[in-house]
Fold these 3 entries.
Entry 1:
Amino acid sequence: MGDGYGTYIKIDNTTIKENTIINIGDSFLIFSYQIYINYENDNKKNSHKTLFLKIYNGEREFQPIILGKDKELYTIGRSENSDVTIKDEMLSRINCFIYFNNGIWNIQDGNQDGEYSTNGTWLYAFEDTEITDNMIFKSNKFNFICKFSSNFK
């Protein structure tokens, strides 16, 4: 799992907000939104909210990717069959996927068949987050799991 400054929470599924940072393997995904304007043949404007993805992998910075112009589901992983392929041996073939549902973009760990990725999908905790039982989080190279108990000795 990649090293990074700050605290990251292991997710199954979460909403993608403006400036969301996700860590998968040794890669970091940074999301923002923009309005995509498509001019039709008869000059009518058709605009909708698209997702802007910037990928960083070690010293390498990928070209920005605009998602949501023509699809509502994108897979991310090391497989050439992924919609977004990242050459990162720490990634699963399909590490996670992004999907549009009820006007909101979401990211989910694993593939659409319900299989989780090997090393997880991690959300950068840039705002206050409620700690829940069995929550897994990491800071730098250390992983933590939260267990609630009423028996403190």
Entry 2:
Amino acid sequence: DSRIKSANVIQMTEEELGNWKAWKKKVFAKMKKAYRNGEFFMAQSSFDGYIDAMTDANGQPIGRVNYGIDGGETYRFGGKTVETVEEDILPDFGAAEIGDVVAVFTKLSDYAINSNMQMTSVKWIDHDTNEVKNKVIVIADGKLLDPNGTLIIKKKAGTTTASQNLENQPE
């Protein structure tokens, strides 16, 4: 959304993405009070590799995964819900190009869906594959109603990996 202010676009290196102090200074400090009840969206592998792997000085995990009695996983980070998405929606930080969006913080109640509520459905049999196929079409789009609380987190240049650090060490 072009209405998101440049101050709400945050660049993070690989080291910063796995660092609690960097998140507090660069991301949490930019959350306006009225929008703090939003949630994060990121690739599952970004959460697992960077957030869930983050520990404090005592080795305690900072990102939380709670396994409820219903068997479902609930992800939390800094008191905020984390919704994980597939990597075709938001790329994994490690695979992302410099400048790619790798995470978003927003309130879903600030997003509206527009639809004409007309749905068309077609069902047919594909005799070549012996499959029954269904096709459903609906016209819909959406837009942020209030872009002021949305934070966009992008991959910043200057990232290194642990394996690259090891390769550059003298023997």
Entry 3:
Amino acid sequence: WTKNPQPMFSALDELDRAGYRYYFLYTLNSYPPSIESSVPPLKDRLASFRTLAERVGPRKVIWRYDPIILSRQHNASAHLREFEFLASALSGATTRVIISVLDFYRKTTRRLGHLEKETGDSFCREPVTEPELPPLISGIKELASSRNMEMQSCAEDSRLAGMGIQAGKCIDDGLIQREFGISLPSVRDTGQRPACRCIPSRDIGAVDTCQHGCAYCYSTGSFERASARTRTHDPTHPCLFPQG
């Protein structure tokens, strides 16, 4: 999972020589800096997406258009315009797009509440109940299909299935079998959220290390702590930051 794969580009040959098999889930939205404060400029992210697809193949770069945030400033019409622009820019560079609707975890609620006070925007706390969501989902599905992209949902129970969106898997045994010839049991990882359909995996990341500063983030507890941990990063250390 990434919002900026560029730092990995120089390591891909090394991973290939070592026999690692991999694919990328690339989260790419067009939210303003108030919501995604530290991601690279959109034009650079689009260029990185296409560069990555040329390097590893479009079936191994999956576009994540998530989370879908509904607010006064980001209503269905705005999302349709943004999705059409992004889908056109990524045409031929991916064959699958995964969507999800924003869940309001405690951290998310706190940060977006602060943002409402700063910007005057108003975020919908129950987007799946909004009347504008079904036509929005139908519209972006049609746009994706017109660019030869299949659409799946991520951890959405039956909420989007009723709108015609197939429940997907980020860690997908079918994709792994098809692309790498590796057969894995098609069983759900019980350590994930109930609606998650991913097969079992091991996460080698660490919380409070991401630098993107997204207001909707449910993982990072403190952006300040993440910055401090980044400053102590030692590439020769077995962990992302010194444990003590």
